[in-house]
Write a structure and sequence with these properties.
Arc Repressor Mutant, subunit A, two-stranded antiparallel ribbon, about 10% strand
């Protein structure tokens, strides 16, 4: 259960509007989980990710939390659950690392944090510097880029990046996304055809692929053809009747008849 500390009084004041939520809070003495409002009211996490984080934090140590195990419990399906897990990784509530046991079997080690990992670090290392005048804060493509880079280790354990490397490479990934490349296509470009030998410097390897493989920007769409303007209406100087002509004058009925050239001679 989320540890709620609503700012509103337990009972609505006399005459107050009843449109907002009203809380009925009872104490729990067993079978409950304390969840911080930093998670329950997170402005950037989806509701699926928030609910999944609460569920994982309520499980005992050693409980299976793989994508298939979670999809067997909930109706969201593997695709939405996988996306929610990537969100939690990107925001520091979850880490997943693939490890090879002595038997040769590869397993995924999952660690759940009831506080985001960045919150445990000094302020200077977890908060961005103030936005300079004339600059805009990081947009959603930047968050998508960091989530993509942090999730690469789930596809190949050799692509495990430090948080510093993730933020350093994020602008290069954003450049791909801004050019209309889907997230799945960027993942394929970074993980397809990896060398068989160990990657000593995964960040440098990914930086090289992001730089040399950057696709060209899509051409700007051609502007729609300008609609032809109709010939303006004029008022006939002879009969005051409206007619269309590029310049003022007389309508067809009021114009003098033209004689043949021979007769005029």
């Amino acid at each position: 259960m989320t540890d709620q500390q609503p700012s509103a009084p337990a009972c609505a004041r006399s005459g107050a509007s009843g449109s907002g939520v009203q809380h009925v809070t009872e104490p729990h003495h067993e079978h409950f989980t304390v969840v911080g409002n930093h998670l329950a009211q997170h402005p950037d996490l989806s509701l699926t990710a928030i609910g999944l984080a609460v569920h994982i934090q309520s499980l005992p140590a050693g409980a299976p939390v793989g994508i298939k195990a979670l999809a067997a419990k909930f109706p969201e399906g593997e695709v939405r659950i996988a996306a929610a897990l990537r969100e939690l990784e990107a925001h520091g509530y979850l880490t997943r690392a693939r490890e090879r046991l002595r038997s040769g079997r590869v397993v995924t080690r999952t660690v759940s944090y009831n506080k985001p990992r960045a919150a445990e670090r000094p302020r200077s290392s977890r908060e961005p510097s103030p936005t300079p005048p004339g600059k805009t804060p990081a947009a959603r493509p930047d968050r998508a880029a960091t989530g993509l880079l942090a999730g690469l280790r789930a596809l190949d354990a050799r692509l495990l990046l430090t948080e510093r490397d993730v933020h350093r490479l994020a602008p290069a990934v954003t450049a791909w996304l801004d050019r209309g490349v889907p997230v799945t296509a960027v993942q394929r470009a970074l993980t397809t055809g990896l060398p068989a030998e160990p990657l000593r410097h995964p960040a440098a390897f990914l930086a090289h692929r992001l730089t040399t493989g950057l696709p060209p920007a899509l051409p700007a769409p051609a502007p729609p053809p300008a609609a032809a303007r109709p010939v303006p209406l004029q008022t006939c100087d002879g009969c005051d009747r409206a007619f269309r002509a590029p310049a003022p004058g007389r309508c067809r009925d009021c114009r003098p008849a033209r004689r043949p050239a021979r007769e005029a001679a």
